[in-house]
TrEMBL record:
Source species: Microdochium trichocladiopsis
Keywords tagged on the record: Endonuclease, Hydrolase, Nuclease, Signal
Pfam families recorded: Exo_endo_phos2
The protein's name: Endonuclease/exonuclease/phosphatase
Top-rank taxon: Eukaryota
InterPro entries: Endo/exonu/phosph_ase_sf, IPPc, Sph/SMPD2-like
A single GO molecular function term of this UniProt record: phosphatase activity
Signal found in the keyword field: yes
Keyword Signal recorded: yes
TM segment ranges: none
SUPFAM superfamilies referenced in this protein's UniProt entry, alphabetically: DNase I-like
Signal peptide from the UniProt entry: 1-27
Chain ranges of the Inositol polyphosphate-related phosphatase domain: 67-215
Length: 300
């Protein structure tokens, strides 16, 4: 049988070649991305001013410009109704969902991304309460499948829950959480998932329903990064945030929750309310909600 020998120089070249082959594979399977959710207060001005001063079209232009300037990788917006075109006119994200229109036809749910998506489904809530005019628009959630990197897919859910504080609102929000969980089980089983949007709920609320997401295996990024993993107690004294929020310790109804999948692991590294960024030129707020930013890492 012939024997083969390798010189030290040849061995060094072989190791160098192997290292070149390994590094790109590693680079493709780990990384990070930024995520923002923002209720943009886009109801027609004649219906609601949302308590925000200034012209709504001008404010929407400013929101789109800030989306482009800070280049968040994934953005979910809610109440994107009458001023949708103003936001898209000044934004430059390469992938953006088409609008479903203003009230009463549109859901107000859209997404802007630096990543391509292959699926977009829009689902209306099965139950709504007449209080707060929730039944006048097709409120619900969207589901989209996006490719973050080669071999790395994440299912994104954007929601806007029933508003208000009466028993009918509590029931509608609870039914909505049940509905989205059934949908996730049927369409995103075993997959990495991010749920974000306006839940119209806080953990301190009596009659809260968002803890069902925790019980289903989803982590709340605010609880994880700011509250040390400790969920506020139902019925405890609320600590709601003004707009812009002075810090991250107060709680808002806008949430970003997530879970890992069988082939993609998600983690968070940072959480921040971006209300001090999304301001008008005179310092006034652009919406009656604080934007929420979370920094994610992924590994596959």
């Amino acid at each position: 049988m012939p024997s083969f020998t390798t010189s030290p120089a040849s061995a060094a070249k072989l190791l160098a070649l192997l290292s070149c082959l390994v590094v790109p594979i590693s680079a493709r399977t780990t990384g990070k991305f930024s995520f923002l959710t923002y209720n943009v207060a886009g109801l027609p001005a004649f219906l609601s001013g949302n308590g925000v001063p200034g012209d709504k079209g001008t404010n929407a232009n400013s929101i789109g410009r800030l989306f482009a300037e800070y280049d968040y990788d994934i953005i979910h917006v809610q109440e994107d109704f009458a001023y949708h075109a103003y936001i898209y006119a000044t934004d430059d994200h390469p992938y953006r969902t088409p609008t479903t229109g203003t009230v009463p036809w549109g859901s107000g749910l859209n997404s802007l991304l630096n990543f391509p998506y292959t699926t977009l489904n829009r689902v209306k809530w099965d139950k709504c309460d007449l209080n707060e005019a929730d039944c006048l628009t097709p409120k619900g959630f969207t589901m989209m499948r996006t490719q973050i990197a080669s071999g790395v897919e994440v299912d994104l859910y954007n929601l806007h829950a029933d508003a208000g504080g009466n028993s009918g609102d509590f029931a509608a929000r609870s039914a909505g959480i049940d509905q989205i969980l059934v949908y996730i089980n049927a369409n995103s089983a075993g997959r990495a998932v991010i749920i974000a949007g306006d839940t119209n709920d806080r953990y301190t609320n009596s009659g809260r329903s968002i803890t069902k997401l925790r019980d289903a295996g989803f982590k709340d990024s605010w609880v994880e990064r700011i509250k040390g993993g400790v969920y506020p107690t139902e019925g405890a004294a609320a600590n709601p945030c003004p707009v812009p929020a002075p810090n991250n310790a107060c709680e808002i109804v806008d949430k970003i929750l997530y879970r890992s999948g069988t082939t993609v692991k998600l983690d968070t590294t940072a959480f921040d309310y971006e209300g001090d960024i999304f301001l008008q030129a005179d310092g006034n707020r652009l919406s009656d909600h604080n934007p929420v930013r979370v920094e994610f890492t992924y590994s596959a």
